[in-house]
Amino acid sequence: MPETDLSIFNELYDIITERKENPSEDSYVCSLLNHRKGINKILEKVGEESIETILAVKSEDKEEIIYESSDLLFHLMVMFVAKGITLDEIATELKKRRK
């Protein structure tokens, strides 16, 4: 399998963290993190993107699957940042499961 640059995940996580620490009114991430509904708004988006990913898989359209999965991963990262969970913690859990 060809090696892929997965640094985009760390870059995106860092951008989301920066937006949490330095809010901007015109930032979508900030609007999620600072929404009056709190974490519930982020969870709504995770749920919505999960359903859209499932529907994309059912449609068997690879490009749509990639697009919707990217949205889901993005919103999961927003949730991680909101709850103080790092990508390293997720990676550690996944590594534990390999054993």
From TrEMBL:
Record protein name field: Phosphoribosyl-ATP pyrophosphatase
Coiled-coil ranges per UniProt: none
GO BP of this protein: L-histidine biosynthetic process
An MF annotation (GO) of this entry: ATP binding
Enzyme Commission designation: 3.6.1.31
Main location: cytoplasm
PANTHER family linked: HISTIDINE BIOSYNTHESIS BIFUNCTIONAL PROTEIN, HISTIDINE BIOSYNTHESIS BIFUNCTIONAL PROTEIN HISIE
Signal sequence coordinates: none
Membership in a protein family: Belongs to the PRA-PH family.
UniProt keyword list: Amino-acid biosynthesis, ATP-binding, Cytoplasm, Histidine biosynthesis, Hydrolase, Nucleotide-binding
Cellular location(s): Cytoplasm
GO cellular component assignments: cytoplasm
Catalytic activity: 1-(5-phospho-beta-D-ribosyl)-ATP + H2O = 1-(5-phospho-beta-D-ribosyl)-5'-AMP + diphosphate + H(+)
Pathway membership, UniProt: Amino-acid biosynthesis; L-histidine biosynthesis; L-histidine from 5-phospho-alpha-D-ribose 1-diphosphate: step 2/9
